Amino acid sequence: MFARATIVLARRPGVLVIPRQATVETEGKTVVFVIADGVAKERPVTLGVVEGDRVEVREGLSTGEQVAIEGHRELQDGARVTVTTEGAR
After folding, report:
1. Could you give the CA distance from residue 86 to residue 89 in angstroms, rounded to a whole number?
2. 27 backbone dihedrals φ, ψ, rounded to 5°
């Protein structure tokens, strides 16, 4: 007999979490590209706990802000972008 269990060490309600793939390492810092009004803006972020394909953002991003998750590795600060939703490619 055996059992599989998950142990929850802590719960942190209200934590901002984004897809890990949204982050970019550049010049020794971690950034994301925030999309607003069709423009990508590079934003440094401070990350926290990583769990699977998600990562906690402790500083640098607010709830509701939209981040690029595809094509962002080639983006530059101030680039014009077109936002598409998943499945609309």
Report:
1. 7
2. 50, 40
Dump the DSSP string for 38-54: TEEEEEE-EEEEEETTE
In sequence order, what are the beta bridge partners of 44?
31
- Report in angstroms the alpha-carbon separations of 9 from 6, 27, 76: 9, 33, 39
Q: How many CB atoms lie within 10 A of CB 35?
A: 19
The residues spanned by each domain of the chain are: 17-74
In this predicted model, what pLDDT tens digit does every residue of 9-50 receive, in sequence order? 666 677 899 999 999 998 899 999 999 999 999 999 999 999
- Cα(30)–Cα(47) distance, rounded to whole angstroms? 8
CATH code: domain 17-74 is: 2.40.420.20
In angstroms, how far is the first alpha carbon of the chain from the final one? Answer: 48
Looking at residue 12, its pLDDT comes to 67
